[in-house]
Write a structure and sequence with these properties.
Order of helices and strands of chain A: EHEHEHEHHEHEEHEHEHHHHHH
Shape of chain A: elongated
Helix content of chain A: 40-55%
Low-confidence stretches of chain A: none
Mean pLDDT of chain A: 96
CATH class of the largest domain in chain A: Alpha Beta
Oligomer: homodimer
Number of helices of chain A: 14
Radius of gyration of chain A: 20 Å
Chain lengths: ~300, ~300
């Protein structure tokens, strides 16, 4: 079995590492803050002191970090993965970052004989814990085939989309669809409420027809109950929407709906709600419509 | 069994009437144009010459017409249903109209001892043919119970939402969610295409996660294939969005997403595409993004 290095042991990275350990992989880890290190070491992981060291002791290095700049620094920066790497290694970035950064990483790593995949995930903390993440993969087919048994320890819906960057483009598409569907459900349920109509009945009726979606099912319920404990925070979704809008600029495509919903997220974050689940978008509509959230 | 009158024998009304006939109801019909009359008469319907006459020969009158003004004229206007009606009758309006008009009809009919339900549908021509429509009902419970066996001949997902107008509010909510989800999928698939990523793979990956919806499944496929034969036309969806925006104004709720997507529908209709399926929204993004539709 390949020796794995895992860098970035946050809400997603920690349970993903645990699933790799449980699948029998030897795993070396690095994280900027000590947070999850002790728990993972007690399960068999070995803690190292830099991304460079991780690369020196692994065949496949996985990164799972907040944003494009973090991944670029960890992989290509001082004491980074590339400094400890050798030809034949593989780097799998499972963060959500800009497709342009993913392509840059691929180009630089390829020049050094290192395979690279962009493999962002969806499914959240629960999907990470249960090993049922959706994984959207960009990169060469040979690298994908090599990575597949490793990815299968972490996810259940693993699709090889295309060349380098294609995984990140797909994740951007995913975040567009989720954001606009959340807005759709928020707008509809607030209109029902303002019109004196029972939102639970509306949700039930709509789930039986063409308006059906997972967002209506899960977030519709959260909105009706006013339960916005994350979940997936507005802060993180807005970060991903910034990648979406940047990707739109890169190809000169106006993303009218994505621009608007990102503006609404900006407003919620300005109101101190960035740490709430993205279903809290409904609270902005309630505020705009003069509804007291306490009456929900 | 109740004697039924059916007014409005268009794409939806004709197959709905056929299902009532097949369920064993006696049905009298009226339509402004002769179109579907002959076919329905050959299946046992009796053709009459005005909404007033229909009311005189039926216990329950169903209307299925294009817009608010049509229903108001047919029910309350000259030679209308109300002129031939008597106490104890029932009127079920299955058109998609403004909730305010539905409430006005309810009030006027109630004053005359006539039961009234607003019962708009979703599920399209195929749902009408197969008797599997979703039916969203507003009105009194006694009227709903009386109507249920009749509605069951036409639909399979029948929900009593609340008081008069609640069915139409629910239909407005349904059209919001469908419109914004269509926009979401159009924006995502165009971004994929502009980025050189296979939209079919993106759709497949997204269907396995939180971005899943019926719209992504059905309209996503239509967009990828460029097949925009209706379906549900942009003309009709824009008409319904006008009801949505009017309902938002009535309760002073800004419907930011609905306003934007209605503007995009306006643009498509200006380009002569109003007769296409609403999935053709993607063609506006392709045009904006400088993609030749022939390259799809």
């Amino acid at each position: 079995m390949e020796r794995i290095g895992f860098i970035g042991l946050g809400i997603m990275g920690k349970p993903m590492t645990q699933n790799l350990l449980r699948a029998g992989h030897s795993v070396v880890v690095f994280n900027r803050s000590p947070g999850a290190i002790a728990a993972l070491v007690s399960e068999g992981a070995i803690a190292l002191s830099s991304p460079k060291q991780v690369a020196q002791h692994a065949d496949v290095v996985i990164t799972c970090l907040p944003d494009s700049a973090d991944v670029e620094a960890v992989v290509l920066g001082d004491d980074g993965v590339i400094e400890g790497a050798r030809a034949g290694m593989m780097v799998i970035d499972m963060s959500t970052i800009a497709p342009t950064t993913a392509r840059k990483l691929y180009d630089t790593l390829s020049e050094n004989g290192i395979q690279a995949l962009d493999a962002p995930v969806s499914g959240g903390e629960i999907g990470a814990q249960q090993g049922t993440l959706s994984i959207m993969v960009g990169g060469d087919d040979a690298a994908f085939q090599r990575a597949l048994p490793i990815l299968q320890a972490m996810g259940s819906n693993i699709v090889h989309i295309g060349v380098a960057g294609a995984g990140q483009v797909t994740k951007a598409c995913n975040q567009i669809v989720v954001a606009l569907t959340v807005q759709a459900v928020a707008e509809a349920l607030t209109l029902a409420k303002k019109s004196g109509v029972d939102g639970a009945k509306v949700r039930e009726a709509l789930l039986g027809g063409f308006a059906q979606s997972r967002v209506l099912e899960v977030h519709g319920k959260r909105m009706l109950e006013g339960k916005f404990n994350p979940g997936f925070t507005l802060d993180l979704h807005r970060k991903d929407m910034n990648i979406v809008l940047q990707t739109g600029r890169d190809v000169n495509l106006p993303l009218l709906g994505s621009s608007q919903v990102t503006s609404l997220m900006n407003a919620l974050i300005a109101q101190g709600k960035g740490g709430l689940d993205n279903a809290a978008l409904v609270s902005l509509y309630e505020m705009l419509g003069g509804l007291d959230a306490n009456e929900r």
